[in-house]
Amino acid sequence: MRSFWSRRGSLAVTVALFFGLLGAAAVAAFAQESTPAPSGSIILATTTSTADSGLLDALAPRFLAETGLTLKPIAVGSGAALELGERGEADVLLVHSPAAEQAFMDEGFGTERRTIMYNDFIIVGPPSDPAQVAEASSSVDAMTRIANAGAVFVSRGDDSGTHALEKRLWESAGITPGGAWYTESGTGMGDTLNIASERDGYTISDRGTFLSLRDRLALEILFEGDPALLNIYHVILLNPENSPAINSEAGRVFLDFMLEPATQQFIGGFGVEEFGEPLFTPCGDNSCGVETIATPIATPSP
Amino acid sequence: MTSAIIQFSGVIARAAGQVILDVPEFVVAAGETIALIGPNGAGKSTLLHLAALLRPPDAGIVTINETIATGKNAAALRRSLSVVFQEPILFDASVMANAAAGLRFQGEPRAVAERRAGLWLEWFGVQGLADRKARSLSGGEASRVALARAFSTDPAVLLLDEPFSALDAPTRASLLPALRAMLNDTRAAALLVTHDLHEAFAFADRIAVMEMGHIIARGDAQELIARPPTRRVAELLGIETILRARVAGIEGRETRLEIDGARGASLRASIPAGTLLRPGDHVTVTLPAGATRAFRPGSNGPRGANALPGRVTGVMARPSGAQLVVATPAHIVALAAWDVCETRWAIGDCAIVSFPPADVHIVPDPT
Amino acid sequence: MNELASGLGEAAGLLLGGNPEVWTIISLSLRVSLSATAIALLLGVPAGAMLALARFRGRSLAVGAVYAGMGLPPIVAGLIVSLFLWRNGPLGAMGLLYTPTAMIGAQALIATPIVAGLTFAAMNALDPRYRLQLLALGAGRAQTIWWLLREARLPLVAAVIAGFGAVISEVGAAIMVGGNIKGETRVLTTATVLEVSRGHFQTAFALSFVLLGLTYLVTVSLAFLGRQQQPARR
Q1: Helix (H) or strand (E) holding A50
Q2: Which end of chain C is more exposed for a tag (fewer CB within 10 A), N or C?
Q3: What is d(CA B58, CA B45) in angstroms, rounded to the nearest whole number?
Q4: Of all residues in chain B, what percent are helix, strand and coil, respectively (each to 5)?
Q5: Closest-CA distance of chain C to residue A172, Å
Q6: d(CA B352, CA B324)
Q7: Is B36 left (phi over 0), alpha (psi -120 to 50) or beta?
Q8: Nearest of B265, B218, B220 to residue B241 by alpha carbon
Q9: More confident call, B125 vs C110
């Protein structure tokens, strides 16, 4: 009775009821909005650098026109993309992290892994090139020169695919990086390039990001072309036995689309208009033989 | 006996564990006006909030129109009540929307509510402000709107919590009679909380005096002033002269009293029926200034009245005359009519204070 | 600093040139953030009012939770919503992840505590005698709440503006549950992030200017709606 007198209790009930109704209305609104059925779209988990290139944005309308499926590329880190695939939160993967991909396949999370295209990593640095990286015989040699000269090196330090490659190179060179010359940026490729430029330092970059930022960087490509620096993209079809949510049929449609000659040709021309050179080299089903060139770095060049 | 609109039975209210109101019995009857007076913290506002069903009693019951108020019927019962607070609490809307709010809450259609509210705005002389923003009004205008709003629901009783305390004297002086007239016209009962004695006497038929959560006296306003039951009530009612005295002798139905601390000064007082006095008894007497007259020496007061000579020690001008403090040597407050000879009263003048023995009240309870 | 000037120019070009992609992004930003703000308004105002007016067990805990929620990082809101919307989550079957609806949900989660907290503060700041007067006038519960909200509408408008400002400018939740899909879930903030990582700083600045202009227009409109009935203070 006391609470009712002051209307506090009943007020609480009323407002709570109101709140509840609105909540229900909101949920109903959510439910209503879910008209785009999952079957009409396909979730592609991929890496940030792929999405940043703009290639997938350009492919999506072609994919829709040809297959009637909406492509939803979700850009996350390489590890996260594989994790999403493992959990069944995606329908298909487009990734470039060979070692992790192999482990993924070995554990039975994927049913098929096919080569689509590649680009490459480059070693960039200040035009003065204090470590004389431009004269290096291999990528491992280039890294050794940087370390020996004590020249500034900016690392991604974020466990990205690029960072993984860098760590393999140090390992092959028998160097444990550290000290005043070695900086970890902990950020993306673009920021890392900017930091290297500001500090007259070296870093490893994918070609696409460097090309897009080149105009505002005081950096040059000092080393390229080593097979160890190849960056190969694979599409992985996911094992639907892991999660009923995986739309493996749509995944196959995407894979087939990526391997089509018309798509391969489109990939080969992508970026020419903006950067003067393509960002990717199409290599559907290893037609170009890139897999055989890409020698494991574990056997360093002399 | 007219019917009780509001009735308290055994009502106790607490705050932070302390009893702040203890009213065994209290009634507001139809059509009557009651003023609640008393010092700050006496419980006046608490009593009004309880009467308005704005808070429940911690013990006891409040009855409205012979229905016991409960949580469930409080909202319905409140409809026969209107409350006006110390400050006119107007909402951020037009004057009309404010005045019509009570009727709208009772479910009246807008047109009906606004027509009725409009009449009340007119009664209080603020119909011209109907379209103004309520927040743009002056204090007096806002008070008039708040009163119009209170009357618009046609309440059986108005509960007024110091409604004029924020207003200046002229505004108050113009609103008080208007309110009084309105209450007479509508036959609405009213309960006025005030600490302004003048306001209380001008407004109310009946007075209830509160102190420390209790109603310590109540009754007809004139009767209370003439015969306060205790010394404290006399003080709270503002009765001007309160003296301690010793019974020096009994002469029929009168007693001769020697005033304490005033050598040789004595006065005669009527012995109230049923009071037994013996010589040597100590008593407290009260004497309202209104029962007294001060004269120049040589003039004569009424036959049979007390006539105490003394010197003027204080003068307060009043529209009706001067109010003097005369040392006889006991200090007695007395009124003097404007002198025909146009001689102003001044401190140090000689004066004779005259008052009938019947108006000297021997307080039954001297505490 | 050249980017600033050229970004401003490009912003004008994007808008006037009728670039359809930019207009899609703008309309999606508005749709998502205004919907989220509307939900926050519908949920947050009653919740804040309840906290201010009602007395119930656990009220101070609830108030603390709301105040803490005002600082909810967008990325956490995105993570919470993802948890529900993941295919293997409780609402996964609805297929809402990477849709504007999911973004609206996450942004509503960000804005609701802000609106609720500021509503609570606004209602608490009201003179308690207003409520007493409404009771005395015979107002019912709904009428009491409505009149008190009207009384506090200026700070309430500020609450809504704060909620909108928080969601139109956040990027963490939008990118997490929206996925930044072109034409579908790409809004001004996520598009800006993308353009920055692509090195298109000029375009990023252009989008930023559009975002600032849009935020300014919407908040000014909201403030105008509130001020329209602003009383002339005594």
Answers
A1: helix A48-53
A2: N
A3: 16
A4: 30, 35, 35
A5: 30
A6: 11
A7: beta
A8: B265
A9: C110
The one-letter code for the residue type at A155 is S
Q: Which of B6, B36, B29, B34 is nearest to B205 (CA)?
A: B34
Residue B176 in 3-state DSSP? helix
**In this predicted model, what pLDDT tens digit does every residue of A34-45 receive, in sequence order?**
433 445 889 999
Is pLDDT of A30 > 50? no
pLDDT digits (tens, 9 = 90+) for B248-258: 888 888 898 98
Other Cβ atoms closer than 10 A to A104: 22
Supply angle C-alpha A159, A60, A48, rounded to 5. 10
Closest chain B C-alpha to A25 CA, distance in angstroms: 28
B311/chain A closest Cα distance in angstroms: 59
* C227 near B CB under 8 A: no
- CB-based contact A26 C96, cutoff 8 Å: no
Q: What 3-state DSSP class applies to B22?
A: strand
Q: How many CA atoms lie within 13 A of A292 on its CB side?
A: 5
C129–B89 C-beta distance less than 8 A? yes
Main-chain dihedrals φ then ψ at residue B290, nearest 5 degrees: -65, -20
Structure tokens at A186: 């902990």
* DSSP summary character for residue B262: S
Q: Note the pLDDT of residue B365.
A: 67
- Angstrom CA distances, C47 to A111, B142, B168, C121, stand at 50, 33, 42, 12
Using alpha carbons, select from B14, B38, B345 the residue that is nearest to residue B193.
Answer: B38
| Structure confidence at residue B177 (pLDDT) | 85
How large is the average pLDDT for residues C125-146? Answer: 89
Going by their DSSP bridges, the two strands A110-125 and A281-282 should be labelled as antiparallel
Q: C182 CB near a chain A CB, below 8 Å?
A: yes
8-state DSSP, B229? S
Q: What is the pLDDT of residues C194-219, one digit of tens each?
A: 888 777 778 888 899 999 999 999 99
Are residues A1 and B71, on separate chains, in Cβ contact within 8 Å?
yes
Q: How confident is the model at residue A162 (pLDDT cuts 50, 70, 90)?
A: confident
| Cα B176 to the center of its chain, rounded Å | 13
pLDDT at C66 (0 to 100): 95
Give me the interface pTM, i.e. the ipTM: 0.76
Are B224 and B207 in contact by the 8 Å Cβ rule? The answer is: yes
In this predicted model, what pLDDT tens digit does every residue of C37-58 receive, in sequence order?
A: 999 999 999 999 999 988 888 9
CA-based nearest residue in chain B for residue A5: B71
Show which of residues 75-94 on chain B sit within 8 Å of chain C, judged by CB atoms. Answer: 75, 78-79, 81-83, 85, 87, 89, 91-93
B-chain residue closest to A4, CA distance:
B71
